[in-house]
Every structure is written in structure tokens, then in C-alpha cells.
């Protein structure tokens, strides 16, 4: 039977509407089924701390394969900022949904992270906090997920002070001076030493690395023969300091402390070559960042206070 013109027009309209609805509903289904990709950008993968952090992230992704995909990469040394910027650009080109980054520099990464944000990528900062004023100047709202480094290093410094006497001379081996976590750890060490009446004879950068930590420690031991302790901003530099103390024939006479609680430092804690360090949950830091990045991808709010989601840090001594 042939439909009247009005009936045929209505049938065509219904069919058109139905066919138009199919790809739309399919698109919604695709969006709902899409597994977000998180790009993890690390600092030096020659540093055991960041290897542990990366491994923790990979283990978490393996345990939650339907929740997100993970792409990870890192630079060869702590100060290669340009290489880290290039990695972020690669992540942008790969169209990741979120970036979790431990920046090599607290200011220099802001421009490329602005580019990522403008491309719709959600960004979360871990380990070393990006400079809040620089972020503000670029209209960036990037939460920092990590510990209070000043509080952590003060815990270590306070414990060291109990083994010393007021007026004793100490030296601080600092991380990369343009990074917020290096600045905060040095500040925490100074808080503890000043409160206990110690004399800080030198503060120099070992750039987070074993060899440079060794070089700075050796110089401090030579320049101040009666120095009593070396406070290293991370365990890599503490390892270098331990070697310098041994080479100077001062094992047992000069105390060394660090920060990170990497596996390589644990035998030294046990035998006393290192007095104390701080554990900031390396394997979990990237996981905390990923969890918050996924919230942002879903359009959820993160529980940040003044831009910070604080994670644990604990004093570690000989057990």
C-alpha cells in the first residue's frame, strides 16, 4: 500500500532521526568505553628513587588495567631540563589524557605544561613542587601531590642534633638549587641545626647525584677538618658523602644523614655509616599522582589545600 505524501514525509523524518541517533549514541558509548592514558614524566632514571617510583606506577597500572593506560619516560640526569621538556612535548603529541610529572626544575617546565593544559590534558605535579607564582602568572591550576619536604628534613635534622653538641660544625649538601624540594629540605635541615645551636659551615649543591655529592663532601671535610656531620638532601648524595668520609679516614667520626630511604642506603643505616634518612613512600608517590589525575579526567574535584595534597613522610633510623 502506498502511503499518502504526508505519511511518507513523516516516515522519512523518523528514519532520518533514527539513523542520526545511531552514530551519536555510538559516540557516547565509545567515550564511555575509552580508557584514559596517563603520561608519567620522571626525573633521573639513574636515581634509584625514581626507578622505584616508576615501578610502583607500573605495578598499580597492572593491577588496574581497565582504569587507565600508562606511558612513562624520564631523563638521564637530574638537570637535563630541556630533555624533560621534549618528553612532555612527546606526551602532548601522543594525546595523553593526563600528565603526572616530577619536574627537574620548578619554573622551567611551566611553559610546556601550559601547552599541555591548553590541549586539554590534565596535569598533576609530584615530587618537586612547581613554583606557585609562576603557575599563577600562566593561569595554571596544577595540584601538587607530595610530602612536606621541610618537615621531613627537619625530622632527620632533629634526630641528628641529638647525637651532637651545641656549637658542633656541620655541612649541608643540597640538591639542585632551582628545585623547590631541594630548597625546602635545606630549610628543614637549617631549622633543626639552628634550633640545636649547631654551626652550619657550608651549604653547597651536589645536584642530587652520587659523584657530585662525593665531591662536595670531600671538599667540606678538607676545608673544615673538625666538621661533625654532613646533611645530604637525598640518599644519592649521602652515598657519595659516606665514600668521602671513608676516604678521609673519618668513618665513625663524621655523621651522615640523607633523605629518601632508597634500598642502597639500608645496609648503611644498619651498620651506622648513615645515621638517618626520611621515607616519603617512593613507590606510592606516582600512584597518588595518578589517582588524582584520573579524578581530574573524570571531571571530579581533588582534595587539595592551597594547591597541595600532602602525602606521608617518616623518619627512618637503625632498627
The CATH class of the largest domain: Alpha Beta
Relative helix content: 40-55%
CATH architecture call of the largest domain? 3-Layer(aba) Sandwich
- Please mark out the parts with pLDDT under 50 across 5 or more consecutive residues, or reply none: 1-32
**DSSP summary, beta strand count:** 12
Spatial strand sequence of the major β-sheet? 2-1-3-4-5-11
Question: Could you give me the name of the CATH homologous superfamily of the largest domain?
Answer: Response regulator
Q: Biggest β-sheet, characterized?
A: 6 strands, parallel
End-to-end CA span? 92 Å
How would you characterize this protein structure?
By secondary structure, the chain is an alpha/beta fold. The chain folds into two domains: 37-146 and 283-309, Response regulator (Rossmann fold, 3-Layer(aba) Sandwich), CATH 3.40.50; 149-279, Rossmann fold (3-Layer(aba) Sandwich), CATH 3.40.50.2300. It has helices at 5-33, 48-63, 81-93, 110-118, 132-137, 149-161, 180-196, 210-223, 235-247, 266-271, 282-297; strands spanning 37-42, 69-74, 98-101, 122-126, 144-146, 169-174, 199-205, 229-232, 255-257, 276-279, 308-310, 314-317. The strands form three sheets. A six-stranded parallel sheet has the order 2-1-3-4-5-11, with helices on both faces. It has a four-stranded parallel sheet with strand order 7-6-8-9, sandwiched between helices. α4 (110-118) links the parallel β3 and β4 (122-126). α6 (149-161) runs parallel beside α7 (180-196).
